[in-house]
């Protein structure tokens, strides 16, 4: 059963930006980590990928792929909640083979952006599509912020120059009135 959710898209385009994101893969299964890393590296050459075999989400990351089952302990919901609190703007995708309907509901309520069954190859494609949409949005936001910052600075300078010229004109008019 396929569990991919949130912004599912079957597009396979690579983000046109050079957005550099930090990705953290939390999974105790080395084969799953390797498969996910391979998919991410092939599709997103500008991302920095870190892997951990335990549910330690510390550090400064933008994208999190989290497993549900760590040595028999199902921790994805708590993990998603903690990551969402620590990194409110991050992308969180549960990538696990142990996701039932109750866990899926809890994950979404905990702030998870998507959930994929790692035993389903099509779900990896969907997980990468969700990641692509997030990275495209992050690149767009960064571009707008840079442009907005420059335009705002130029507008502020323009406003100051206009104000300064108005004051000079007013002073010149007063001098002409009172020679």
Question: What attributes characterize this protein structure?
Answer:
179 residues, alpha/beta, two-stranded antiparallel sheet, 7 strands, 51% helix, elongated
Tell me what you see in this structure:
This protein is of the alpha/beta class. Helix content is 51%, strand content 16%. The protein has helices at residues 30-43, 76-86, 101-109, 121-177; strands at residues 22-26, 48-52, 63-66, 69-70, 73-74, 91-96, 114-117. The strands form two sheets. Strands 2-1-3-6-7 form a five-stranded parallel sheet, sandwiched between helices. It has a two-stranded antiparallel ribbon with strand order 4-5. Helix 2 runs parallel beside helix 3. The longest helix has 57 residues, at 121-177. It is elongated. The model is unreliable at 1-18 (pLDDT under 50).
């Amino acid at each position: 059963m396929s569990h991919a959710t949130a912004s599912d898209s079957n597009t396979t385009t690579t983000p046109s930006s050079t957005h550099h994101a930090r990705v953290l893969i939390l999974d105790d299964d080395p084969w799953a980590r390797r498969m996910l890393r391979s998919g991410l590296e092939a599709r997103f050459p500008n991302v920095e990928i870190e892997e951990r075999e335990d549910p330690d989400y510390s550090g400064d990351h933008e994208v999190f792929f989290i497993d549900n089952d760590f040595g028999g302990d199902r921790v994805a919901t708590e993990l998603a909640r903690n990551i969402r609190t620590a990194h409110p703007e991050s992308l969180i995708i549960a990538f696990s083979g142990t996701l039932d309907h109750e866990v899926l509901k809890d994950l979404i309520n905990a702030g998870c952006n998507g959930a994929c069954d790692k035993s389903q190859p099509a779900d990896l494609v969907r997980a990468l599509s969700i990641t692509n949409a997030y990275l495209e949005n992050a690149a767009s936001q960064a571009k707008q912020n840079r442009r907005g910052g420059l335009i705002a600075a130029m507008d502020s300078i323009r406003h100051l120059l206009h104000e300064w010229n108005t004051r000079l004109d007013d002073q010149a008019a007063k001098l002409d009135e009172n020679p």
